[in-house]
Write a structure and sequence with these properties.
The complex is a heterodimer of chains A (about 190) and B (about 400).
Chain A lengths: L4 E6 L3 H14 L2 E6 L5 H8 L3 E5 L5 H4 L13 E3 L8 H8 L1 E6 L4 H49 L3 H15 L3 H15 L1
Parallel strand pairs in A: 1-2, 1-3
Antiparallel strand pairs in A: 3-5, 4-5
Helix pairs in contact in A: 1-5, 4-5, 5-6, 5-7, 6-7
Chain B lengths: L3 E7 L6 H8 L2 H4 L2 E7 L3 H9 L5 E5 L1 H7 L9 E10 L1 E6 H9 L9 H11 L4 E5 L5 H11 L8 E5 L5 H6 L5 E5 L2 H7 L3 E6 L8 E8 H6 L1 H18 L5 H9 L8 H9 L1 E3 L6 E3 L4 E2 L10 H14 L7 H7 L2 H7 L22 E3 L6 E3 L20
Chain lengths: ~190, ~400
C-alpha cells in the first residue's frame, strides 16, 4: 500500500480550511495540515515536507512559496508549480477555479490528479460564493451612490426623488454610461465644489 | 472602429503608471487598442496569468523573464521583455528596532550613501540582517546582494526573505525581518504606518537599474506583431507623457484611484516627484532620477542590462545557465527597432553598453541624434562589461 499523501493547505479562513480538509479526506487517503498564519510561510511548509501544497490563487502570500521552488539544501525536495503538460488541462482548470498547487518533484501524475480534482471542485465553489458576495456588495455600494446623487439633485434643483432619478437615467442614456457611473461623477464633483 | 482589447496583468504599484496612463490618457486608444488592466494579488499570479494565456502582456519584475528562461522558479513558458516600463524606484528601509539603533550611534539617514549606511548597519548588528523583499527574482534582491557584497554589510552576510509588501509591517513587528527593500508606494506606506524608516533609494546602489518590464509570451510576440507594436508605442508615449513634471498631479490622482493603487495621491506623488519622506520625524530628501519612465532611453531593453541580471542570477543559483541565443529571445531590442521605426521614437544605435561606465549625462548616436543617456554607475565604481561570456565559471 502506498503511503498517504501529505498535503499542506494554506488558508486563513477556518471554515474554508475545514471544508477543504473534509473534501480531500473524503476522496483520498491523505494527511492534511492547515497553515493559517502566513508568518515565515516557506519555512513552516518546508518543516512539514509535504507532497503537495494547495493555496488560493488570490492569496498574496503565494509569493512566499516561490522560495520553495529553490531547494537550498541537498536533502530538500524542491516543489514545482503544477503546470500544464503534467496532465491535460488540469492546471488551467485549477487556475480557473482559483487554486494553485505546488507539487514535490517526482510525484506520480496519477496521484496528483485526484487531489487537484478535489481541490478544483472545492475552490470553484468558493469562487462562486465570493463572486456572488462581491456582486451583492457592489450592488449595495452603487445603490448608496445613486441615492446620494439623487439627494444632491433634489436639493440643488428643488425637484422630487422621481424627477431626480429620471434626470440621472436620461443623462446616463445620453452619455452612454451607467446610472451608477453618472451618479458617482456627480457625487465626486459635488464633493470638490462643496 | 472598435478597439482591440489586450488583457494585461499588473501589480498595483506606482511603476505600473505607464500601463495605467496609456489606457486612461488615450494613448492606447490612439493606437486602436484598449488595455484591459487586471490587478494581480501576487507576482506569481502575474507570471502564471501570462504563462497560461489568461493575459497577453504583463507588468513584470525585470529579472523574472530571465529567471524563467534559466529554469528558476516554477514556470518556464518562454517570455520576452519587449520594453522597460520603469527604471529605479525602489527604497531600502529599516524597521523600528534598527532605526533606533542607527540613531543611537548618530547615523544621519542621509538617504544617499550606501557605503556609509552599510558601515553603520554593520556596526550595530552582530549577525546577518534579514531583509524582506517582494519576490525572489527581483531587482530588490539584486541590489541588496550587490550592496552587501561590496560593503562591510557583507561580513555577516545578509538573509533575504520573500514577504508580500502589504504584510511587511507585520513581518517587521514580528521580528521576521529587520529591514526591507520594496517599490513605491510601499516604502512610503511603511513610513506612514510607523513601521520603519527609509535608508537608501535603490538608485544610490545602481544609478540606472531596469525595474519593471513589459513582458509578453514569446510566441504571442511572433503571432501578434501588430497588436504588440501598438501596445509598445502606446506605453512608450505614456512614459513620455509621465516625464513632464507638469502632469504629476494628474498622474498621481489617476494612479491613486480606488480601482488602481487605492492609496492617497500624496503618497503616489512622493515617488513621481522623488520627494521622499524618510521617517515619522518628517525628514525628507529630494532624489533625482528616483523613478524614471522615459528620459535617457529608459524604456530601451538594453541587452547589457539583461546580461548583468543573468550574470547575477547565475552567481546566486548554482546550475542556472542561459545561452546567448536564449538572451536574444528574452530581451528584445530588435522588436523596439522594428516597432519604433517611425518619427517621434528615438532609440540608441547600440543595443549594449558597458553598465556602470556612464558617469555624467552623455549624448549618444541615435536616429534623431538627440538622445542623452543618464549616469548608470554602480556605487562602488565597478563596471560590467557584457562581452564577458555567460558560461559558468
Amino acid at each position: 500500500m502506498k503511503d498517504a499523501l501529505k498535503i499542506v493547505v494554506v488558508e486563513q479562513d477556518r471554515d474554508r480550511a475545514i471544508a477543504i480538509v473534509d473534501a480531500l479526506k473524503d476522496s483520498i487517503p491523505c494527511d492534511v495540515i492547515v497553515i493559517g498564519h502566513p508568518s515565515a510561510l516557506a519555512r513552516q511548509i518546508a518543516a512539514h515536507s509535504p507532497d503537495i501544497v494547495l493555496i488560493d490563487i488570490n492569496n498574496p502570500t503565494r509569493d512566499m512559496l516561490e522560495e520553495l521552488t529553490l531547494a537550498s539544501g541537498p536533502l530538500e525536495r524542491p516543489v514545482a508549480m503544477f503546470v500544464s503538460g503534467n496532465s491535460d488541462g488540469l492546471a488551467e482548470a485549477a487556475t480557473e477555479a482559483g487554486v494553485s498547487a505546488y507539487v514535490v518533484d517526482g510525484l506520480a501524475p496519477a496521484r496528483v490528479k485526484s487531489v487537484i480534482d478535489t481541490a478544483i471542485a472545492r475552490f470553484a465553489l468558493f469562487r462562486q460564493m465570493r463572486e456572488e458576495l462581491a456582486e451583492t456588495r457592489r450592488a449595495l455600494e452603487e445603490r448608496k451612490v445613486i441615492d446620494r446623487a439623487k439627494g444632491l439633485l433634489m436639493k440643488a434643483k428643488g425637484i422630487d426623488e422621481d424627477a431626480a432619478y429620471a434626470l440621472l437615467r436620461k443623462t446616463a442614456m445620453d452619455q452612454g454610461r451607467r446610472v451608477a457611473d453618472v451618479s458617482e461623477a456627480l457625487v465626486t464633483a459635488a464633493g470638490l465644489l462643496g | 472602429m472598435r478597439a482591440v482589447e489586450i488583457p494585461v496583468a499588473y501589480m498595483p504599484l506606482v511603476d505600473a503608471a505607464p500601463l495605467i496612463i496609456a489606457q486612461e490618457m488615450g494613448f492606447a486608444q490612439a493606437e486602436g487598442i484598449a488595455l484591459d488592466l487586471i490587478a494581480a494579488p501576487s507576482w506569481s499570479s502575474v507570471r502564471d496569468m501570462l504563462a497560461f494565456g489568461r493575459v497577453d502582456a504583463a507588468h513584470m519584475l525585470s529579472p523574472v523573464p530571465i529567471a524563467m528562461a534559466m529554469g528558476l522558479g516554477g514556470i518556464s513558458t518562454p517570455v520576452s521583455s519587449v520594453s522597460v516600463l520603469s527604471v529605479n524606484g525602489n527604497v531600502i528601509g529599516v524597521g523600528n528596532a534598527l532605526e533606533a539603533k542607527l540613531r543611537d550611534i548618530g547615523f544621519g539617514f542621509d538617504f544617499f550613501d550606501p557605503s556609509a549606511a552599510a558601515t553603520a548597519l554593520a556596526q550595530i548588528s552582530d549577525g546577518p540582517i534579514t531583509f524582506g523583499v517582494p519576490f525572489p527574482f527581483s531587482m530588490h534582491v539584486e541590489l541588496l546582494r550587490y550592496w552587501a557584497e561590496a560593503t562591510s554589510l557583507g561580513q555577516h552576510g545578509i538573509n533575504i526573505r520573500t514577504v508580500p509588501p502589504p504584510l511587511m509591517a507585520d513581518a517587521l513587528a514580528a521580528g521576521e525581518v529587520d529591514a526591507f527593500c520594496v517599490g513605491e508606494p510601499w516604502g512610503s506606506v511603511a513610513v506612514e504606518s510607523g513601521a520603519g524608516a527609509l535608508l537608501l533609494p535603490g538608485n544610490s546602489i545602481w544609478a540606472f537599474a531596469p525595474e519593471k518590464v513589459l513582458a509578453v509570451r514569446t510566441d504571442w510576440a511572433e503571432t501578434e506583431p501588430y497588436l504588440l507594436g501598438r501596445m509598445m508605442r502606446a506605453v512608450f508615449k505614456a512614459g513620455r507623457w509621465l516625464s513632464n513634471p507638469d502632469v504629476r498631479a494628474t498622474a498621481s490622482d489617476l494612479l491613486a484611484r480606488k480601482s488602481y493603487l487605492d492609496v492617497s495621491a500624496e503618497l503616489v506623488d512622493r515617488a513621481l516627484s522623488g520627494h521622499m519622506i524618510l521617517s515619522q520625524r518628517g525628514d525628507h530628501r529630494q532624489v533625482d532620477q528616483f523613478l524614471v519612465f522615459h528620459e535617457g532611453a529608459a524604456t530601451f531593453p538594453w541587452r547589457s542590462q539583461a546580461m548583468w541580471m543573468a550574470h547575477r542570477l547565475k552567481r546566486a543559483h548554482a546550475g542556472a545557465a542561459l545561452t546567448e541565443a536564449q538572451i536574444d529571445l528574452v530581451v528584445r531590442p530588435d522588436l523596439q527597432r522594428q516597432h519604433f521605426a517611425r518619427p517621434g521614437f528615438d532609440l540608441p544605435g547600440a543595443s549594449s553598453k558597458v553598465e556602470g561606465a556612464i558617469l555624467v549625462p552623455t549624448p549618444v548616436a541615435s536616429a534623431s541624434g538627440e538622445l542623452t543617456l543618464h549616469p548608470d554607475r554602480f556605487f562602488d565604481g565597478q563596471v560590467f562589461d557584457p562581452s564577458i561570456d555567460l558560461s559558468p565559471k
